[in-house]
Amino acid sequence: MIEVHDLNKTFKKVVKEKGLAGSFKSLFNPQTVDFEAVKNLTFNVPKGQVFGFIGANGAGKSTTIKMLTGILTPTSGKCTINGFNPQKDRKKYVQEIGVVFGQRTQLWWDLPLQETYSVLKEVYQVPDKEFRTRMGFLNEILDLNDFINDPVRTLSLGQRMRADIAASLLHRPKVLFLDEPTIGLDVSVKDKIRKAITAINQEEKTTILLTTHDLKDIELLCQRIYLIDHGEKIFDGSIEELKKQYGKIHEVVFKLENKNDSSILDYQKKFSNIDTAVAEDTIHVYFDATKVPLPNIIKYTLDRVPIVDVAVKDPDVEDIVRRFIRREIGNDSEKV
Ligand SMILES: Nc1ncnc2c1ncn2[C@@H]1O[C@H](COP(=O)(O)OP(=O)(O)OP(=O)(O)O)[C@@H](O)[C@H]1O
Q1: Can you give the CATH number for the domain in which 308 is found?
Q2: Ligand 1 pocket, 34 CB below 6 A?
Q3: Exposed site from 57, 173, 271, 322, fewest CB < 10 Å?
Q4: Residue 334: per-residue pLDDT
Q5: Where does the ABC transporter domain start and stop, copy by copy (predicted)?
Q6: Which atom of ligand 1 is nearest to 103's Cα?
């Protein structure tokens, strides 16, 4: 359904010299450098898949979605969605897709919500009967009735997001692009939105490309995870494969009796393939269990400092993805 081949996007970025003089200089004589926001992305998403497009802030997710939806033109490479070129076949293509940018709305701010749907009905040329049935279904999965006559500007964020998702689905798109659809929402609204996404995917076999920083979204919704970092693919596969590939990194957490003791422990000097993070009186030690035996780490620690507590954590998907998003694992992840 979605075919992406060697997709690239390079932006020109203005480089500013330091200070006020630098600001004036770049205002009148801007110097630019090329910045590769998306690099050689290649993937295919089959019909009906929920594809989790995941990465840290600035990884290139929105830029990719903008190219796939025809808002931006790729610098090079190709994307085809259900046979359409998003840039060339724009008019026909918009009938095929629904798009939600969680940080922005496509609803008319001053109109009652129902009016927005009536305008969209005309834009997408949805016949009357079909429109009524569709609104009934969308109301059922997204609970719109309580606020459907209110002006959009008066809606809460959760109501607005549900309204936006309904707007993107009005014309029964084959592909749905959801860029952070649960951002800033409380748990109960997130839950409602997740159920609606699942219903659409299961009942209509809609292909869904989802970007999110919410780990529960990833776990509950994504059938496949595609991780990108600095515009490049770093992982593509199922949750099980992700666990297999990166799940070898285990974590042991020591709670120290005296927080100043952390300086006594130099794991990097003693062991190779090891990473640490210190927070107050707690030390997190990340290690590859196939290379460094856990008893050695524990012995090394106990021999040197008094410990109040030790906990060993097996990595779960949330943990792995969280570390990716925080850039604790990147292209050089093999180093641990
Ligand atoms: N129009 C633009 N001009 C110059 N640079 C841009 C432009 N749009 C995006 N970028 C840069 O491209 C990189 C990728 O941005 P993008 O918005 O795609 O990231 P993202 O993965 O969606 O991040 P986030 O999770 O924060 O939304 C960033 O470094 C950003 O500053």
Answers
A1: 3.30.70
A2: no
A3: 57
A4: 35
A5: 2-255
A6: 27
Residue 316 has pLDDT above 90, yes or no: no
Say if residue 238's pLDDT is above 50.
yes
My answer on whether 128 and 263 are in the same domain is no
Domain residue limits at 46: 2-243
Ligand 1 atom closest to Cα of 213?
25
Residue with CA closest to ligand 1 atom 28: 58
* ipTM score for this prediction: 0.96
DSSP H/E element including 18: none
What is the reported pLDDT for 335? 35
Last residue of a domain, one of 211, 243, 275: 243
- CA dist 256 and 243 (Å) reads 30
- From the CB of 62, is ligand 1 less than 6 Å away? yes
Regarding whether 187 and 66 lie in a shared domain, the answer is yes
Distance CA 225, CA 218 (A): 8
Which ligand 1 atom lies nearest to the CA of residue 13? Answer: 4
**Taking the alpha carbons of 146, 104, 212, 1 in that order, is the dihedral positive or negative?**
positive
Instruction: Tell me the two tokens of residue 44.
Output: 């295919």
Tokens of 268: 């990097």
Å from CA of 37 to ligand 1 middle: 7
For 30, which DSSP code?
Answer: -
